[in-house]
Design goal:
- By secondary structure, this protein is of the alpha/beta class.
- The strands form two sheets. Strands 1-8-5-4-2-3 form a six-stranded parallel β-sheet, with helices on both faces.
- Helix 7 runs parallel beside helix 11.
- The chain binds 5,6-dihydroxy-NADP and zinc ion (ZN).
- 5,6-dihydroxy-NADP binds next to helix 2, helix 5, strand 6, helix 7 and helix 11.
- Zinc ion binds next to helix 7.
Length: 389
């Protein structure tokens, strides 16, 4: 194993009824005024809003609402939230939603107290956060990103056409409340794309060195098998509590930094998807589903030993009569077939890319990761985009 330091400062409270039981005591340190942040209104339809409002009011809090946080949250929305927080002297933020709401609120928690411009100082390039952001708590309503348990926030700067994420430990929420029954109302397509995002996070960590037997890869293999099993079960029955609670925790486990310990990681597929989203505002998990097979076909020969292990240990494919390269390829084929089985999109057209979209322009804006098994060039990225079109 490589050397590492591990810390995760977010307290997780998981299970049926956890919001009702614990929220009031958790917002104790949030001052008199709490900002309740949410997305486009799903929480008003499924009763989550009423339950949270009732709890906050009973706890004696003034509530300032910050609503309308969109999928792929923008920097303009972050600035709106920061102004609202400052104008109302908000003492803490309660983010109720998925990755978009949670990420937006992490950035708001910084921007509300920072004198300079957070995009310039912390997103355009990595910065040092040497001040305390506003206290932040999460109520997770959709599984997939794992944002509840890390300091990562992916923000889109619409003017610059850049979607990028940074992970600052100081942006970890103080607490995350995770009631799997809250996810029952998530539309099936979002449940599936969120589940695929989880699988993608695990793969982007797994397909990188070191490749000698290690704890991170062992955990990753178990989590990949579990995510595949639970997605299949949840597609059959969206109210299967075991499946939905597993998916929720698999999503957290994929992105709470544990799997990344000791690993180089390779988030090239995420970087490609983020820039596509900056141009065509596509769904995150759906974008990843389109890109992953093509990216892995491009690198699987160089990483043949690891892709062969993926085929055998995750998909249960026999190595009998197969060369290492053939087994590696069979693993990528199994992933591709699973994406088809789930009904996820498989072309960029389905994400909103048209003949008029300049794939070359987008490809040239994609940051290039060192790569688990070789570094891509912008030309390689363009070829992957063309293959997926
Ligand atoms: O906005 P509302 O009306 O709430 O509807 C949302 C939204 O339309 C809906 N939804 C959420 N909970 C629901 C529900 N609908 C019914 N019932 C519920 N209980 O789901 C839709 C998608 O929500 P969103 O938050 O956008 O999805 P997701 O969790 O996939 O987050 C995606 C964002 O997170 C970023 C992505 O790039 C994207 O911007 N990521 C964040 C990461 C992180 N911080 O660690 C890592 C990821 O790789 C990812 O990049
Ligand atoms: Zn992701």
């Amino acid at each position: 194993m490589n050397n590492f330091i591990f810390e995760n400062s977010t307290k997780v409270i998981f299970g049926k009824g956890c919001v009702k039981e614990f929220l009031a005591s958790l917002v104790d340190g949030f001052g008199d005024t709490v900002m309740l942040a949410y997305g486009g209104g799903s929480i008003k339809k499924n009763g989550v809003y009423d339950q949270i409002m009732e709890t906050l009011v009973k706890a004696g809090k003034n509530v300032v609402e910050f609503s309308g946080i969109m999928p792929n949250p923008t920097y303009a929305k972050v600035q709106e939230g920061a102004k609202l927080a400052r104008d109302n002297r908000v003492g803490g933020i309660l983010a109720v939603g998925g990755g978009s709401v949670m990420d937006c609120c992490k950035a708001v928690s910084l921007a509300a107290v920072y004198k300079g411009d957070i995009w310039t100082d912390f997103w355009a390039k990595p910065g040092v956060i040497d001040f305390d952001p506003l206290p932040l708590g999460m109520v997770v309503t959709v599984a997939g990103t794992g944002s509840e348990c890390n300091g990562g926030a992916v923000i889109t700067n619409e003017e610059l056409k850049v979607k990028t994420g940074r992970d600052y430990p100081r942006c970890n929420a103080r607490f995350a409340l995770m009631d799997p029954t809250y996810t029952f109302t998530v539309p099936k397509s979002q449940m599936i794309s969120g589940g695929f995002d989880t699988l993608s996070h695990i793969m982007e960590i797994y397909f990188s060195g070191p490749d000698a037997e290690n704890v991170s890869d062992d955990l990753a293999e178990a989590l990949m098998r579990g995510t595949i099993r639970d997605l299949r079960a949840a597609v059959q029955n969206p109210e299967d509590y075991d499946a939905r609670s597993n998916l929720m925790w698999e999503s957290t486990m994929a992105e709470n930094r544990i799997l990344k310990l000791n690993k180089q990681t390779d988030f090239q597929c995420h970087m490609m998807e983020h820039q596509l989203a900056a141009y065509v505002d596509c769904n995150h998990g759906a974008g990843l589903a389109v890109l992953h097979p093509a990216y892995y076909r491009a690198i699987c020969e160089k990483g043949a030993a690891k892709f062969a292990r993926f085929a055998a240990r995750v998909w249960g494919i026999s190595n009998q009569g197969k060369s290492e390269k053939a087994l590696a390829r069979a693993g990528v084929d199994a992933l591709t077939a699973f994406i088809r089985e789930l009904g996820l999109p498989s072309t960029l057209r389905e994400l909103g890319v048209t003949e008029e979209t300049s794939l070359e322009e987008i490809a040239n804006t994609v940051p290039l990761a060192p790569g688990g098994y070789g570094k891509l060039t912008h030309k390689d990225v363009l070829n992957i985009f063309k293959e997926c079109f």
